[in-house]
Every structure is written in C-alpha cells, then in structure tokens.
Design a protein that fits this description.
Beta Polymerase, domain 2; 5 helices; alpha+beta
C-alpha cells in the first residue's frame, strides 16, 4: 500500500509590516531645507555643526557668508520664507542694519549669516570646535 506524504501548509508570507512607518526627524528635514535655500541664494562657505551634545539651546548651527549687506538681507528674507512655509517658529532674530551679522533662532536650528569681514572676525567655527561637522553636500541631496 502506498502511503501519502502529508505536507505542512506553507507558511504565510508576511504582509505589510504592522510597525508604524518611521518618521523622518523633523529638525533634520528643516535643516536640509534651510541649507538648500541658503545654497540656492548663493550663500558662501556654508557650514553645519551638530551642537546637540554641547548646547542646551539648539541642536544645529548653520553658518554662512554673504557677499554684501544687501546679500545678507536677501538671505534673511529667504530664510524667513522657508521657516514660515514649514511652520517653524522663529524664536528670535537679530539683524541690525549694517551690523554684518544676522542671527535667526529657529529653536532646534540657529542660523548665523555674516559678511565676509564678520565671519572672519568672529570665527564661530572655532568656538564650536567640539561640535560634529555635518557635510553640507549630504544636506543638499
């Protein structure tokens, strides 16, 4: 007599994961938009520092250089557009006319824009030398 082999039922293939989709870090997404906007408006020497381990007031510093006071104003205006369109709160802003330095505090991101003379004078990068330098090219993708 022939015996029949009994097969086990095939295991069910997993369907779509029941885990919730991982959300992108909103601060990192906003950081990318800020850097892309500054790059599009020809800010020079863009530098991004992760200062989350060193600072209790912000996570990222964006440093950029404007070619002139009008360029500095144009960068600030574009920055405000990006932050407003993404519903990011601007906690503070210092953009005194003729100062050559604009600071925009968007809580997790603080943006410092300088004229070339003031960038060289204040050398913010050296104050945050323990911070992690984030390659700008990664944020432009």
């Amino acid at each position: 007599m022939k015996s029949k082999t009994v097969r086990k039922p095939a295991a069910k293939k997993p369907t779509k994961s029941t885990k919730p989709a991982r959300k992108a870090d909103p601060a990192l997404q906003l950081l990318k938009l800020v850097v892309q906007a500054m790059d599009a408006k020809k800010a020079e020497s863009l530098q991004v520092l992760d200062v989350s381990d060193q600072s209790s007031i912000t996570d990222y510093l964006v440093l950029g250089t404007a070619t002139s006071e009008p360029h500095l104003r144009a960068l600030r205006v574009e920055l405000e557009k990006v932050l407003d369109s993404n519903r990011a709160k601007i906690l503070g802003m210092d953009a005194a006319k003729g100062s050559g330095w604009t600071v925009v505090d968007a809580f997790e991101i603080m943006i410092h824009l300088f004229t070339a003379e003031n960038r060289d004078k204040y050398r913010m990068e050296s104050l945050w030398k323990d911070a992690v330098d984030i390659p700008v090219i990664k944020l432009l993708k």
